[in-house]
Amino acid sequence: MISPQHKLRSLAELKRERAGWRDRGLTVVMVNGAFDVLHVGHLRYLEAAKQHGDILFVAVNSDLSVRTSKGPQRPILPEHERVEILSHLWMIDRLVLFDTKSVDSVLNVIQPEFHAKGTDYTVDTVPERDAVLAYGGSTVICGDLKDHATTDLIATIIERFAPKHRE
């Protein structure tokens, strides 16, 4: 059996692989996110992003990065479990973990042709847009309408399964 970690790379390893992809004329698409409690919106986003190129790699927020951006109670699933789940998805070719609040450093090293973001953004509101433009890449918006969110899923679980107060 192939290890679920077989798609996970360090940034240095990914940089070496990227050079080979470039030499072969392959188009690289990058997405990023926490992917904490994977849901159908994530799957639709990843599948749509894959349609923009030959190689899809996912920069996954580390536990530290998720806590920094989403608060001390997140992530729900630790980074090694999120990476394991993602590694089993057909459309993902490579994964990398990053610790920073912004994914700009990963973008600057790998320089994918496309940086894909979900429909909760427009091309003009993507925080990393300037970094992508600086090396000559393009930002694309893909996936279904943003009516799926981990935060909303957590709220639904709490609402449905919290003990009811008796009066």
Attribute tags:
single chain; 167 residues; alpha/beta; Rossmann fold; five-stranded parallel β-sheet; 5 strands; globular
Fold and architecture overview:
With 167 residues, the chain is of the alpha/beta class. 40% of the residues lie in helices and 16% in strands. A 5-stranded parallel sheet has the order 3-2-1-4-5, sandwiched between helices. The longest helix has 13 residues, at 11-23. It is globular, with a radius of gyration of 17 Å.
Structural class: alpha/beta
Rg over CA atoms, rounded to whole Å, is: 17 Å
CATH topology value: Rossmann fold
Query: Approximately how much helix is present in the residues?
Result: 40-55%
Q: Assign the CATH superfamily.
A: HUPs
How many discrete domains?
Answer: 1
The average pLDDT value, as a whole number, equals 91
Number of helices: 7
What's the level 1 CATH class? Alpha Beta
Q: Report strand %.
A: 15-25%
Let me know the largest β-sheet. Answer: 5 strands, parallel
Distance between the termini: 54 Å
User: Architecture, according to CATH?
Assistant: 3-Layer(aba) Sandwich
Would you kindly provide a brief summary of this structure?
The protein contains seven helices and five strands, in the order αβαβααβαβαβα. With 167 residues, the protein is an alpha/beta fold.
Itemize the secondary structure elements and their pairings.
Elements (H helix, E strand, L loop, with lengths): L10 H13 L4 E6 L6 H11 L4 E7 L1 H8 L8 H9 L6 E5 L5 H7 L3 E4 L11 H7 L2 E4 L8 H12 L6
